[in-house]
Amino acid sequence: MSVRDRFLLSKVFSLTYFWIAVSVPYLLYRGLSIDQALGVIAFYGILISILEYPTGVIGDYYGHRVSMIAGNLLYGISMLVMAMPGGIPVYVLASILLALGGSLISGSDEAFLKTISNDFKHDIARLSSLEDFVLMVVAVTGGILASFSMTLPVVLTGMFGFAAVAVLLTIQHDATVRDHKQHEGNIFTTARAGLRKVRHDRVLLGLIVSFSAFGAVAQAVKSLFGSFSDVFALPVEYIGVLVGAGMLLRALAKRNAARFDHVPDFMLLALMVAGLALAASGSIATAVLGLLVFNSFFGVIAIRSKVRIHDGVEDSIRASVLSFNSLVSRFVHSGVLSGMGFMIAASSFSQLMMYLSVLIAVASILFISVKIPTARRVTSVTGYPR
Fold first, then answer.
1. Domains located in the chain, CATH noted
2. For the CA atoms of 128, 134, 135, 137, what is the dihedral angle to 10 degrees?
3. Each residue of 87-140: pLDDT tens digit?
4. Residue 35 to residue 37: CA distance in whole angstroms
5. What interhelical angle do 64-82 and 152-171 show, nearest 10?
6. Per-residue pLDDT tens over the stretch 321-354
7. What is the pTM of this model?
8. What is the per-residue pLDDT across 47-70, written as a single tens digit (0 to 9) for each?
9. Rounded CA gap, 25 and 152, in Å?
10. How far apart are CA 155 and CA 374, in angstroms?
11. Distance of CA 271 to the CA centre of its chain
């Protein structure tokens, strides 16, 4: 099995977190109140955002494979702690380990793929579509596993984390891959270099901001479908089908992004805006169709965005910049979700869709206006061959 295929297998294992489907019900099962359970999850969300950039720097300094191994190891341990009966301190500790593990993986995974790939555009499309597909499957199967035992999906999640570690450890024995320190300076030098790159490269920053806006709305599609039970009185059992369909279409679009190479950016972005505008027309049929259209074409734009961001970043600070991108995306997503809740309560679903279409239109203008030239290859700081 090639290094790339072993990496992708490790990603499948690390993405197999059945925990995502049962997080709140599990904490309630362990005796926490609903506000305590949501508080633990909110604490995790805040902490992983705080840790995003520092752990990206760790990946650049000590090696992306090392960072992924440590992240998956902590990820597995966190689930074993989470599976223990206990009170809030136990689950806060598990959340700390989980946030640290997840942030160590974030950024370093794509950075590692970039260094081992001979066709990054194809491989990042494959990885991104794989992520959506695996998450869709585990979201469904996690609930099924919980029907047998609430602890079972949590323990299995931890086991898959350890399996990812086992696969990554096999890569060190491959003679073509070396994992060593990326910089001659100290770790603070790496941290400053990453921040300096984002601060002074206006083109890269513009691309990160526009991609964060696209991604925030795309991530919010699940919540928008969830609101259909209130807005359109749609039975709850159909909402899961819509969420699954949206994730599947996005995964397929990412996997086949190369087929749209001849389609200019502005046309894809116009279709995304048109999808949200269609969703604002007032009926459930057009709302479903519009959101699915937006989600699908976002899949293609997402791959283009990732490739351009990677092309604009040197290997020595790649994970740091990608982690900064994730940090911005998390904050924008939180803002969009907060605004959505307020708008749905204060106005109508149609008005919300129009607001989101304007947001995407503005982000589209920014996206079209930036163009990152391919970065000069920095061979002196990495041991990975192309």
1. 3-182 (1.20.1250.20), 195-369 (1.20.1250.20)
2. 150
3. 899 999 999 999 999 999 989 999 999 988 889 999 999 999 998 888 888 877
4. 5
5. 160
6. 999 998 898 888 878 877 776 776 666 788 889 9
7. 0.81
8. 988 999 999 999 988 889 999 999
9. 13
10. 43
11. 23
**pLDDT of 281 over the 90 cut:** no
- Contact by Cβ (8 Å): 14, 6: no
Q: Which two tokens stand for residue 138?
A: 């585990």
- Tell me the C-alpha distance between 43 and 37, whole Å: 10
Lowest mean pLDDT among 146-160, 173-187, 188-202, 365-379: 173-187
Taking CB atoms within 8 Å and a gap of at least 24, the contacts of 132-137 are 132/247, 132/248, 132/250, 132/251, 132/254, 132/299, 133/247, 133/248, 133/251, 134/12, 134/15, 134/16, 135/15, 135/20, 135/247, 136/244, 136/247, 136/248, 136/251
What the block records as the tokens of 228 is: 């259909």
Nearest to 126 by CA among 142, 109, 108: 109
